[in-house]
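Much of our argument rests on the idea that a fold can be written as discrete symbols. In the encoding step, the backbone of a single protein was reduced to a row of integers, each denoting a local shape. We regard such an encoding as a compact summary of how the chain folds. The record that follows shows the chain in one-letter code together with its fold in token form:
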Amino acid sequence: MTPDQPRHRIESVDPTDSRYDQHFLALLGVAADARATDILKSHADDLTQLRDLGKARAAARSLRTLTSVHVYGGSAYHHDSTLLAPLEELAEVLAEEQFEDGLWDQGGAHSPPDTAFSVVDLALARGLLDQDAHPSTERLRSTVGRILRAAGPGLATGGVHTANHRWLVCAALARIHSQWPDPSYVRRIDAWLAEGIDQLPGGEYSERSPNYAAAVTNPVLLTIARLHGREDLYANVRANLTAGLYLVEPNGEVESVHSRRQDQTALRHLPEFWLQYRELAIRDGDGRFAAVAALLGERGTAQAFGETPAGDRLAEVLDRPALARRLPELAPLPTDFEHHDDNCRLVRVRHGRNTATVFGGTDLPEVRAISSGLSTNPTFFRMRRGAAILDSLRLAPRFFSLGHFRAEGLERDGDGWRLSAEVRGAYHQPLPPGHRRQDGGYALTDDGRFWSAMDFPHREREYRTLRTEILFREVPGFGWDLTCSQTGADVPFALELCFRPGGELTGDGLERVSDTTYQLVHGEAVYTVGEDRIIFGPGNGKGGRQPPVVDPGERYAWLGGSLTPDGIRVLITGRTQTTYRLTLR
């Protein structure tokens, strides 16, 4: 076997084969052709990004997608010679921009994990090209093979940043090894896998991120299971997809408020999981997973796909032809439930088109920090009544500039749920004589909200405290009663409701604060979208002692940061040491 002869072979997908789901293949084929047309018009931008910024990922993905339509017999671009020049140019520039160690930058200097993203795509494309074996792609296959062989050693010795990067690098090495075997690749894969998969008992991975589960962890674990013989990893993906059944909104969005990554404040969409549900449905005969895959197929390409266009998926199906087989018998999806994931301190409630989320699982109470990789979103409740969406409910007391309420726990309370937290702010006493310095040169230390050369740890403190408890109870007709009790310090607070843009807000007690912000002073208000609506209130007065101001906390204010969510905001203000009851109907 020569270096240019990969040993891993794949079955061809014949679009006329009766074993395959013709509707599914037709949908992906049309989407891939449309995507290829777009790439042919814009691939020069990928090359510019690659040459000027060292970003290889978009170029590698474009190469993969163009390859898929070139080799697929059901594509309008099948063996179309107009694809060859763009494909060869993409490959040649990827090779030119590769460092001597086989890596690219893509946001990090000589980055193994970022390189692994591109290697996964390029190795998949190389496998398809080799299986197709069309004479016109001989030079292209040689160039891509040279890139992959050059990248292998760097991936087998380099490090990573995040939890999911470990499995990504394993998948990249498994793909290279399947074509050009090297025992060092196997050793590296096994070393990473020996750390154990970072999965919580409820099915979420440690990053608790639907984005990274869908785009990285699940796909690469499936690749490792298949190419590296680790069939036990199917169980990890199965558990994550099962957990995901309870996170899906009726419109295909996926709850992400509990994430520890960037998507904790961003929308994610179920189609990112499409092929994973399909693969496990076919492998396991799971009717629920099949129902998800079928639903996404019925919705077609008009739905929001998130990060990955539908047309980019054809390559994965050609790589794993079993994905194109017919789905097993469908089973009903859960649409009426109360689901509690204790590991994420997350409760999900759904009754048909109506859903709610109670969240008390930010990392702030444990680590006392706000940083990348931590769950910090202060949203603790969300609610949907059909198309009327309350995207965020937050509470911000103006107490020592410590910022929003973030629960220290979520617990069952009778037929409801309770969030609670206690925060303290300190006034500092004089240093004891043994720690005083005549030169005033004290250590720079952390007070808990700011730093100062005050040697805080050696001072006695005089504390002020604020304890908050919020009780959630569902009422018939999918309404909610929230009872908010705050005891201790007497300070202003603002309860912030933020509704999804696109609806109409009405109520006699509403007073405008800014272009998108109102204060509910008295009575109830209504947020309406079409025939759906959320009625909420009551207002709780106004005045100088309860201003319509949301204090994000000194951690944000010092850097000029903002926690203001997008949408239509309504503030209900008051003073602590009282109990306020919010009704949502």
User: Anything to note?
Assistant: The mean pLDDT is 95. The chain is about 35% helix and 20% strand. The longest strand covers residues 461-475.
